[in-house]
Amino acid sequence: MLFADDIVLIDETRDRVNARLEVWRQTLESKGFGLSRTKTEYLGCKFSDALDEIDGEVRLATQIIPKKESFKYLGSVIQGSGDIDDDVTHRIGVAWRKWRLASGVLCDKKIPHKLKGKFYRVVVRPALLYGAECWPVKNAHVQKMHVAEMRMLRWMCGNTRSDKIRNEVIWEEVGVASVVDKLREARLRWFGHVKRRS
Predict the structure, then answer these.
(1) Which PROSITE patterns match (predicted)?
(2) From 172's CA, which of 12, 88, 117, 155 has a CA 20 to 30 Å away?
(3) Phi and psi (nearest 5°) for 111?
């Protein structure tokens, strides 16, 4: 192994994170590896008012590690406040990038709408809903995703909002269920997995 990336240390107090970080640094150095001091950062999450720790520093040897308000980990944007606003915006952006990459197929007037819908379900929608099963969603998040998806679907069909075609007609035309329904389905599937655990 030449390098490892995206290593996460999690603990409940800053002091214990400092201790774990030092142990991790010593372990890596004993095996001939180094820990990048310029790329190392930390995120303090306050998911509860009960944990009110006085601001302190996280250190790597003598260097102070910079604190971030959010960072990207395994494709998701994690915010210290526990909100998902940045993650929802990021997922919508990723879905649009996938949509643009596939626009040669999705905007081709010779391809049937149902086939475009299948392509959309396989390429774009997984990018939009990645990690959504464990989001604490609010109506505003669902609405943002719904608006983005409807823009994509209308564009695929060659329609605009000014054409006054109802969403239900668009969904039927391309054979795609609403993103709201798919989000609920993913969350219920995840809930089932959690409920079945011992």
Answers:
(1) RT_POL (PS50878)
(2) 88
(3) -90, 130
Number of C-alpha atoms within 13 angstroms, CB side, residue 100? 6
C-alpha 71/C-alpha 128 separation (Å) is 19
The predicted-structure confidence for 38-63, as pLDDT tens digits, reads as follows 778 888 777 666 555 556 788 777 78
Q: What is the DSSP string of 126-144?
A: HHHHTTGGG----HHHHHH
In 3D space, the residue among 108, 137, 129, 130 whose CA is nearest the CA of residue 182 turns out to be: 129
Contact (Cβ atoms closer than 8 angstroms) between residue 165 and residue 174: no
Residue 63, beta-bridge partner list = 60
| C-beta of residue 159 within 8 angstroms of C-beta of residue 171 | no
Burial of 124 (0-12, 13-18, 19+ CB in 10 A): buried
Cα separation, 62 vs 21, in Å, equals 12
Say which residue the tokens 């308000």 belong to: 69
Please compute Rg for the chain using Cα positions. 22
| pLDDT, tens digit (0-9, with 9 covering 90-100), for 48-104 | 665 555 567 887 777 888 888 888 878 888 888 878 899 999 999 999 999 999 998
